[in-house]
Amino acid sequence: MNDSSIKKLTILHSNDLHGDFLPKEKEGKETGGLSRLSGYVNEIRQKRENVIYAIAGDMFRGSVIDSEYQGLSTIDLMNNLRPDVATIGNHEVDYGFAHLLFLEKCAKFPIVNANLFITMNNARVFTPYINIEVGGMRIMFIGILTEEVLASTKNEKIIGTFIDLESAAKEVGIICDNYRTVRTDMTILLTHIGIDNDRKLAEMLDPDWGVDMIIGGHSHTFMDEAEYVNGIPIVQAGTGTGVIGQFDIQYDTEKKEILDLRWKCVPINEDTAPKDDIMENLIDSYRTQTDSKYKRVVTRWARKLTHPCREQETEMGNLYADVMAWEASYDVMLFGSGSIRKKELGPVIEYQDMVENTPFDGPLYLVEVTGAQLRRIFRHLFRDDAWVGETEFYQISSALRVTYRKSTHTIESLTFKGDDVTDDMRIKLGIQDYHYNNFDAFFGVPLEEVKTNMKPRVVATSVNNIIEEYFATNSGLDAKVDGRITILE
User: Fold this and answer.
1) Beta bridge partners of 161
2) 83-98 residue pLDDT tens
3) Which of 16-25, 71-80, 152-161 has the lowest mean pLDDT?
4) I need a surface site. Which of 121, 175, 240, 385 has the fewest CB within 10 A?
5) How far apart are CA 414 and CA 399, in angstroms?
6) Dmax of the chain from CA atoms?
7) pLDDT tens digit string along 198-250?
8) Over the chain, what is the mean pLDDT?
């Protein structure tokens, strides 16, 4: 064996940063923050010869520093973080597709995506892959996006994506067959499709395509070790800046063979990562500009409220659903569970907390459904996929109660204001624009069918206008899990 042919390679990776720029206190230690994440990446780059840093989507959303500048601040901060490659996540399109293309022009790092295209001529929007040359090795990264992006770009008809994993897998094969050569040392999929879809995708990959690993995002999965499917290691680094994923690889460039591959998830805190002073100063400059606007107190709740999991009734979910149903034109609010971004909040609520917790501001729609349609909606919402993070889930306002049995896939009880919901009953629902624009897919009942009951209409132009007014005029708010959604195993 020629020792000169043995190379060491370190691949660092993050995903779902979601504007998590500032550190937090955890068990008496300062944890996370973009400054320490950057400090860790810089330190590894200085200590080791061959280092690649990749980001698997969703750099945007979750911070007022991001939303105030519509992602421009985030791109500025990411340029200082200096990833070698990034892929698109579903939240990269939150400010509009044209704005995303503008942000890409501002990025000083390559953004790859293989399955987002212009529908008129089937032309790819982004470069599908990149070859990174490091230490005499050529590493190919291919970007794959979640089909959820279709929901965010529903009104932009010229934009499409391969909406099933089979098509995405085929696209990987096309790229590998055309652009992967004898010079390619490793092929890595940089995905934003969630851990469950990563597993399914790995099963579909032909071994001859030579995919060596999948670095993923979207499902916010914290892992203690790599998971192998079809011989391919799949990894993800949770969410935010509190952790970073790290591959340590030994590679034989003569045999074109990985000799040793180890993965770990490294905590980012004051013990493991120094601060990057340049990054710290840049973040502070943005904070100075946003604090005067966002640090005012809006209200004080009775106590801290929680939203630990999207796929269940939660304290914060009940509060927000009830707030949206306050003095409303509709009977019941179905509030998108994923619209609530923090796992806990309160008791003091600053304006910054408020807008970071519900960053997806937009109009509210009123639709009318029959009792029979409402049953179909809940059967669709509670289908098996709902419990593995594959679907939309909703928090419901207090007038409605539903009991569902998983084992038989049946609705055991559905009541409105204490009375059983009958098939011919008419109930008016409030839903956010994102969910209205994707009504068929999210609710399992065709919108055209629902329109025959009553023409849908916009009843409010801003979710956060309603939330802010209610919070400002009501102090000591409290909410409990009170049995609105009961799931029987």
Assistant:
1) 116
2) 999 998 888 877 777 7
3) 152-161
4) 121
5) 11
6) 79
7) 999 999 999 999 999 999 999 899 999 999 999 999 999 999 999 999 999 99
8) 91
Best CA proximity match to 362, nearest among 448, 442, 467 = 467
Answer whether 168's CB lies under 8 Å from 162's CB: yes
pLDDT for the residue numbered 385: 85
Residues 6+ apart with CB under 8 A from 312: 485, 487
Strand partners for 257: 252
Task: Tell me the C-alpha distance between 169 and 206, whole Å.
Answer: 9
- For 462, the token pair is 């801003």
Distance separating alpha carbons of residues 17 and 192, to the nearest angstrom: 12
SS3 label, residue 199: helix
As a whole number of Å, the end-to-end CA separation of the chain is 58
pLDDT at 163: 52
CA distance 270 to 221: 23
Residue at 301: amino acid letter: W
Cα dist. 111→57, 169, 278 in Å? Answer: 10, 19, 24
**294 has pLDDT over 60:** yes
Pairing of β 364-370 and β 419-420: unpaired
- Give the DSSP letter of residue 442: H
- The domains found in the chain, sorted by start residue, are 3-288 (3.60.21.10), 296-488 (3.90.780.10)
Average pLDDT for 423-434 = 96
| Identity at 485, one-letter amino acid code | I
What pLDDT does 25 receive? 86
- Spell out the residues 6+ positions from residue 186 whose beta carbon is closer than 8 angstroms to its own: 137, 139, 140, 212, 213, 251, 258
